[in-house]
Amino acid sequence: AEKMRALELNSWQLLRLLQAQLSGLPCEHVLVEENTGDTKSVVTECGGNIEQVFCCLYQNAAVLHRSWKFKRIFVSNIEDYKSAAAAYYVFLRTVSQWLARRMTDALYVREDHQISSLKKYAFSWHLDEIFLVGATLIHVISMGSSSMVEEEQYIWHFVLSTFYLLLIRKTAQTILADRTQSSVGLSMSLNGKISYLIISLFSVLVLGRILRAWHQGGINWVNLPDISKWLKLAGHEYVKRLWLLACLSVIILSIYVLTFLWTRRKMVLVVGFSFFIPGLMVLKYIISHEDDTSGSFTYSYGSTVSAQKIYRVLGALTVVAVVAVPWLIHIWTSKACSNGDICLSTSGSHDILKLPPLMEMRDSFYVIGWAYIFCWCLLQLLLQQPTNSLPVLLLLVQIYASMLHSFSAVPAHKHWIEVAALYQLGMAGHFALGNSNSLATIDVAGAFI
């Protein structure tokens, strides 16, 4: 009886699903008769279109089920039970096969649509791409004017801000298109992805505006107030606190980005510990940094020797990362493949990036790239003026947010767009540190360490 009840419930649920898939399904009278108990105890031969066949099969199963329940009151009849169960099985098998074919056809249609959309996207030009080409040409032309060269930092700030605003517009259009094409069940995942993409772009814009206000660059505006001048007026104690905060944040962020490779736990721990050592050395250097009675920082012989040691450690760390990381990843992958954990055969994988050699190359480039970025940030914290410590951190966060957006964008940006975005961040960050095209603004204090 329990098995028959389960068959009845499964059949009823599938019938409801069919009604949702087929709006013109003529089975309302079957459900009404089932609820009222007014059923005809006649098994008919099923024919006609697919909707009529579904309704007929369900009705036959329901009739045989009720006949078995009625006769069971007086005597147990195995044949009636088998007939009712067989009728339910026929209905369930027929409907399941039809739904599976319908779902497969829908997936093929959707994949074809996505492939055609990707091909169309790959060979089409968008507003952000046209803007980049036009801005590059204008920037090249501006090199012929000496006054434009002196104020180049404003050009890069304008290009960077406008480009990321165009990326926000493009992302919003893509999200709206995906929402109209996606089902209701995917709305929750889309909402999380929306916030992820938009926040990363807005963070780049907001941090870029802060960096722009940190130094008044150029020749004509260098005497105007900015954040760096306010910090110097506030006193060396506030500058030193920001210096420490920036160094700690750089260390934490650099170790955090490695958690994306948490499947390689041993490598993450080794590389993270290697990052942690020079970070602590820079922290010790900042804490022991002395200042004179005028409130400005001084460089003693001991601090110079400490800076030289840190410089050697950072140089050795980058070389070791380039040489050792690929070997470590290869050894780990070989062990995992021998244990049968993640090794995939080339014939069974449709995603070429999941093949072990390309996985090793991808992860190696990721770790080595972040090793270079981390060492560069620590070196800048060591050599730059203390007031430039926070801009170094903000520039690192901008790079991280831009990379996150590139990884998550669907459809993915063209490679030259991603490279151009990082190049613009680098140029705008170069001028945000107080540099300009005038020799008078070059800070050579760090070169004497």
Automatic annotation (TrEMBL):
<feature type="transmembrane region" description="Helical">
    <location>
        <begin position="310"/>
        <end position="329"/>
    </location>
</feature>
<protein>
    <recommendedName>
        <fullName>GPI ethanolamine phosphate transferase 2 C-terminal domain-containing protein</fullName>
    </recommendedName>
</protein>
<dbReference type="GO" id="GO:0006506">
    <property type="term" value="P:GPI anchor biosynthetic process"/>
</dbReference>
<feature type="domain" description="GPI ethanolamine phosphate transferase 2 C-terminal">
    <location>
        <begin position="128"/>
        <end position="448"/>
    </location>
</feature>
<keyword id="KW-1133">Transmembrane helix</keyword>
<dbReference type="Pfam" id="PF19316">
    <property type="entry name" value="PIGO_PIGG"/>
</dbReference>
<dbReference type="GO" id="GO:0016020">
    <property type="term" value="C:membrane"/>
</dbReference>
<keyword id="KW-0812">Transmembrane</keyword>
<feature type="transmembrane region" description="Helical">
    <location>
        <begin position="268"/>
        <end position="287"/>
    </location>
</feature>
<keyword id="KW-0472">Membrane</keyword>
<dbReference type="InterPro" id="IPR045687">
    <property type="entry name" value="PIGG/GPI7_C"/>
</dbReference>
<feature type="transmembrane region" description="Helical">
    <location>
        <begin position="364"/>
        <end position="383"/>
    </location>
</feature>
<dbReference type="InterPro" id="IPR039527">
    <property type="entry name" value="PIGG/GPI7"/>
</dbReference>
<dbReference type="GO" id="GO:0051377">
    <property type="term" value="F:mannose-ethanolamine phosphotransferase activity"/>
</dbReference>
<feature type="transmembrane region" description="Helical">
    <location>
        <begin position="154"/>
        <end position="172"/>
    </location>
</feature>
<feature type="transmembrane region" description="Helical">
    <location>
        <begin position="130"/>
        <end position="148"/>
    </location>
</feature>
<feature type="transmembrane region" description="Helical">
    <location>
        <begin position="242"/>
        <end position="261"/>
    </location>
</feature>
<feature type="transmembrane region" description="Helical">
    <location>
        <begin position="193"/>
        <end position="211"/>
    </location>
</feature>
